[in-house]
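User: I'm new to structure prediction. If I give you an amino acid sequence, what do you actually give back? Let's try with this one:
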Amino acid sequence: MLAPLSRRAALLLPLIALPLLTAGCQRGVIDNELAAELAYLGLDRAIDRMIDLGFDGFNAANSANIPTQYGNGDEIGDMEVGGQVDQGASANKGMRLEVTLSNYSDGPVQDTAIYYTGGPGNADFMLKGLPDADFDGTFNGVYTMDGDLAGTVELNLQIAGQTADTGDGTIARVPGTITVVGTATSDYGVFDVNVSL
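Assistant: Good question. You get back a string of structure tokens that encode the predicted 3D arrangement of the chain. For your 197 residues, that looks like this:
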């Protein structure tokens, strides 16, 4: 014997609603807490690359404008870094960067392919005590994701570390001293960033 209509409807409603809710939430292949983390991790190497290109531009600058620096993703795509740096003989200088990505990827993260486009994101650093300086600042940017994750990711990061004289009159960041903390906010949620480079 069939259950009463109201009871049958109550039993069927979750089965009907589940696919609709899932389809409504899903932006890429993955839609869960892990996806919020992957949205940042796909850019982790890019933050590293941005810092290196920023210092390349810092060293090449002979005016307030940093010559635009270009880098390739480990897998595909491009990064473009330009900006300004304070001039003069002071041991304390500010460096402001603009970071644009085009179909950028450093390869799959945990078997998840993500490609980033957009910007420019903006970094604002203060270097104190050059050439062997402490530096700290912020990086904020919004990038569009494509591939296994879709939508946007917004970075609000604080970055700190140290620089050293390379011996040829230029400066470089000291590997292992860089800390990156903050948030990466995407359609999948907010991931709390806390990494060392």
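You can read the tokens as a compact description of the fold. Here is one thing that stands out. Helices lie at 5-25, 33-60.
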